[in-house]
């Protein structure tokens, strides 16, 4: 069964995403496997969107990141 990061949906079976935490990718945690803050994750996801869509402005990228995170188990509340 495939596992995905609870915070950003990165596929955890891929070594480049696998980190110290069971349910999160290495980009979403520190070296001890602790989940980073909501704001840090949001910035990271916004940057990730901008790699796909370089002309996306920061405000829109953050709004999309916010929306994206509402679907993630780590952030949906
Ligand atoms: Zn992640």
Question: Could you provide a short overview of the structure?
Answer:
By secondary structure, the chain is mostly helical.
Task: Give an overview of the whole structure.
With 77 residues, the protein is mainly α. The protein is 35% helix and 0% strand. It has 2 helices and no strands. The protein has helices at 38-52, 58-69. It is globular, with a radius of gyration of 12 Å. It starts with 37 loop residues before the first helix and ends in an 8-residue tail after the last helix. The model has no long low-confidence stretch (mean pLDDT 95). The structure holds zinc ion. The site of zinc ion has 8 residues, from loops.
Beta-strand percent range: under 5%
Cofactors, ions and other ligands in the entry:
zinc ion
Give the termini separation.
25 Å
Low-confidence stretches: none
**Tally of helical runs:** 2
Using the alpha-carbon principal axes, give the shape.
globular
Rg computed from alpha carbons, rounded to a whole number of angstroms = 12 Å
Helix vs. strand class: mainly alpha
Query: What is the N-to-C order of secondary-structure elements (H for helix, E for strand)?
Result: HH
Number of strands: 0
Largest sheet: none
Overall mean confidence score, pLDDT: 95
Give the % helix: 25-40%
Annotate the secondary structure layout:
Blueprint: H1 38-52, H2 58-69
Helix pairs in contact: 1-2
The chain binds zinc ion (ZN).
Zinc ion binds near residues 5 and 10.
């Amino acid at each position: 069964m495939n596992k995905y990061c609870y915070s950003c949906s990165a596929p955890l079976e891929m070594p480049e995403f696998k980190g110290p935490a069971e349910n999160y990718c290495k980009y979403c945690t520190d070296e001890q496997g602790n989940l980073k803050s909501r704001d840090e994750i949001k910035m990271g996801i916004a940057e990730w969107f901008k790699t796909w869509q370089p002309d996306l402005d920061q405000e829109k990228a953050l709004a999309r990141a916010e929306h994206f995170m509402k679907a993630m188990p780590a952030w949906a509340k």
